[in-house]
Design a protein that fits this description.
single chain; mainly alpha; about 0% strand
Amino acid sequence: MIIASRKRKENIAEYLLYMWQIEDIIRGYGLDIDRIRTNHIDRIPDLTDEQRREMTDWYESLIDMMRREGVAERGHLQINRNIMEELADLHRALLAAPKFGDYSAEFYRTLPYIVDLRSRAGSETEGEIETCFTALYGLLLLRLQGKEVSPQTTEAMKQISRFIATLSSYFHKNEQEPLFKND
């Protein structure tokens, strides 16, 4: 909750990846708040009793949402899907606007990797932005498991990371002052 709040303000991409990880942590503990409290929250050093209560409440609300939204086993919470859609909408708007040529150039450098990832997955149901996030999250999981990453994958992930960082930067600029004025 504390980390999520900070990440949401600073870097929307890191926030979204963090929230996907939180969803997986909750699933890993079987949506059981007692197990989350004992094995996760209580192990975080330097939390006040109030912060522990707030974190417990936050996890309980996420568990409730996951159950109500039918994502207890897989998928993402609507709050996270909404952010993904906002990013995808911004992506389309940036591509359509000639004044954001730097963004378009970064996207077209990334596009071959997106096409390759989609062909390997055998599905084109994910949008371009979600494909990038899925790849970045997969890399995060590989690293957490201590698995080796090929040089080709490393190269692809560097480009995808640059692209998503660019999109994230524009997202925060757009939140501060809209990039597109409604005429």
